[in-house]
From TrEMBL, chains A, B:
Superkingdom of the organism of origin: Bacteria
Organism listed in the record: Vagococcus carniphilus
Keyword vocabulary terms for this entry: CBS domain, Repeat
Protein name listed in UniProt: Transcriptional repressor CcpN
Pfam family, one: CBS
Residues annotated as domain CBS: 80-139, 145-205
CDD domains hit by this protein: CBS_pair_CcpN
PANTHER family: CBS DOMAIN-CONTAINING PROTEIN CBSX2, CHLOROPLASTIC, TRANSCRIPTIONAL REPRESSOR CCPN
Length: 207, 207
């Protein structure tokens, strides 16, 4: 659903002149009031305009409601990704756990020291399991990490809906974001936390 | 925005008789076509009805789009909460960590053995910190838990929007759900994971 040019013009007139009667709006547009009846009905029904008896039309401050779906679900990962914390295969479990606390991150991405390519992922859960089972905190993360190609990745152009589906399907807390589809260069991460915050922020702005 | 009774009646008539002309709809309702013009404009603009030239009105199969906001954000915590994993203050860090893996949970709620009241919360992060810093896995969770009243709780009637705001504001992964507002009886938990899944599910159903 998209507003017509005439409906958009009505909104601008109301914004500039509120409260304004239907007759005045029609006059501004050089049209008759009956011609505008359907447009005004659509604009008040969708909550863009308020119609106050004996006062006139007022702009509600709400943007056009049905755009909601697009804003909510088609937002790109690019707009929501956060910096990723990188460690190397030789990093010890102890040092990795310390990094995780230092940056308050849920997972660490392991890249090759030479090429910079993503080769593994270590989650809070992986570290917890390792610390519970081993006395040896000097174990390297390479031993406990999940390895490529078993890591699900995202890329900047992916929609938040698609990223959320992958997080849900694979039951992980975040996805590494790689430069472009097929690349192994990590440029950030997209987490459940960020996705939930996105939805909550959108919902809060509209109330 | 809510549909009027007349608009709902129009939808039912179209569903039963599609394709149907505006004149026929007016006839069914005992009204004139000009009377219905605004209603038909609202229903076609919002995508509930399709108006096909020389054919008539057809039901699009879409539910009423602007209800989206309500379904998305006003869903109650009750509908989304999951079972909580309970431990007691004397439970050791080792046993608590094992429970966390067994139930694949992000956090454990600590209740009083006698009263059943919520007295604390232990997160994956709390356990990880304890295991990293102590050799003693026989420490009791009472020593490391976050204590009431420093725990933010939810209740069944809370909206998902409000629960999400609390999770975001307090930077936690889940909230214990108590019986009613003010109670200390835990009946479940509401997590970031479940809230994100709710939004992703809603977005997927509408595509």
């Amino acid at each position: 659903m998209e507003l017509s040019e005439r409906q958009k013009a009505i909104i601008e007139i109301v914004k500039a002149n509120e409260p304004i009667s239907g007759d005045k709006i029609a006059e501004s547009l050089g049209l008759t009031k009956p011609t505008l009846r359907s447009d005004l009905a659509v604009l008040t029904m969708t909550g863009v305009l308020d119609a106050r008896p004996k006062v006139g039309y007022i702009y509600s401050g709400l943007s056009f409601e049905p755009l909601l779906h697009e804003q909510l679900f088609e937002t790109k990962v690019e707009a929501l990704m956060t910096p990723s914390i990188i460690v190397f295969p030789k990093t010890t479990v102890r040092d990795a756990t310390t990094s995780l606390f230092m940056y308050d991150s849920g997972s660490l991405y392991v890249t090759d020291e030479t090429t910079g390519d993503l080769i593994g992922l270590v989650s809070r859960k992986d570290l917890l399991r390792s610390l519970l089972n081993n006395q040896d905190n000097d174990l390297s993360v390479a031993v406990i990490m999940t390895r490529m190609p078993n890591i699900i990745v995202s890329y900047p152009e992916m929609s938040v809906l698609e990223a959320g589906r992958l997080l849900t399907k694979h039951e992980v807390d975040s996805l590494p974001v790689v430069e472009i589809k097929g690349s192994k260069k990590v440029i950030g991460k997209i987490s459940k936390t960020r996705i939930m915050e996105h939805f909550i922020k959108m919902g809060s702005e509209r109330n």
